[in-house]
Design a protein that fits this description.
With about 280 residues, this protein is an alpha+beta fold. It contains nine helices and nine strands.
């Protein structure tokens, strides 16, 4: 079986690696559950799929975030979200696509929308006392990514109108931006400008604020590994318990403690935590 729950169980069985100074990607890429890896591109890992299981399809995207502090490192490649379309990040001609096809023996595009998780590791500058969280992307996505980008550009344009020598009516900014279908992928493209000797690219980066910094939430302890998933209703909560229990063995399950974490802006999340 392949899923984020089984990936979490793989982490439980390799806890000593999590406490080491070795970069996470150096050994995670070799786990059998991983369908493919990408160096320097989102996502870092793609899990293999269960082709005949509608309830637990697998195939999740995982991005790795490491920092020498208890602040989640910045999101340089994509604005974090809870799910993404595979077509935005893979093409049928890419090496990652071929690797996924070979591992799954099926077309990766048969599962077009993938759940997104972030494996976050924060620790001190001396690389001790790690806090690790495998957290669903909805923890960071309290408004849609497209809306976040739109509002950021609205602020930028408003500030520019205020600096203009000639008065400009700023009331047009919000209605105008609402007519545009801004996507983050639009900004990743290199722009060729007439008569310019360089090419231009606008890069959208994002950083967590206090509400999104999972590493400093109550209950996230030093030297611990946590799975953090949304639990906005009882059915969702029970499903998480069922799948974590099914993916782990008796001793791993017994070592887990569970509690509810209340996101400041996005409701309840359930945490499955173990010491490392």
């Amino acid at each position: 079986m392949y899923s984020i729950y089984h990936f979490f169980a793989s982490l439980l069985r390799n806890k000593t690696q999590l406490n080491a100074s070795v970069p996470l990607t150096d050994w995670l890429k070799d786990l059998p559950i991983v369908g493919c890896t990408q160096k320097g591109r989102f996502p870092d890992l793609v899990l293999r799929r269960n082709r005949d299981d509608q309830d637990l399809p697998g195939g999740e995207f995982i991005e790795l975030k490491e920092s020498d502090s208890y602040v989640v490192s910045s999101f340089n490649s994509t604005v974090p979200t809870g799910e993404k379309a595979i077509a935005e990040w893979f093409s049928p001609h890419s090496p990652a696509y071929r690797t996924l096809f070979q591992r799954d023996q099926a077309d990766p595009f048969a599962l077009p929308i993938r759940q997104v998780y972030y494996l976050v590791r924060g620790r001190t500058r001396q690389k001790i006392n790690p806090r690790l969280c495998l957290v669903h992307g909805s923890f960071f996505e309290t408004i849609p990514a497209q809306e976040l980008i739109r509002q950021a550009f609205a602020q930028l344009l408003l500030e520019a109108t205020q600096r203009a020598e000639t008065p400009i009516d700023a009331l047009w900014i919000e209605p105008w931006l609402e007519t545009l279908a801004l996507r983050q992928s639009d900004f990743s493209q290199v722009r060729h400008i007439d008569r310019a000797s360089v090419k231009a690219r606008i890069r959208v980066m994002s950083e967590v604020n206090g509400a999104g910094n999972i590493l400093q939430y109550p209950g996230i302890e030093d030297n611990s590994l946590s799975l953090v998933v949304p639990a906005h209703d009882n059915a969702q909560l029970q499903q998480h318990f069922m799948w974590v229990r099914a993916a782990s063995n008796d001793s791993e399950w017994a070592a887990l403690k569970t509690f509810t974490l209340h996101h400041q802006r996005n409701g309840a999340f359930v945490v499955f935590q173990t010491p490392v």
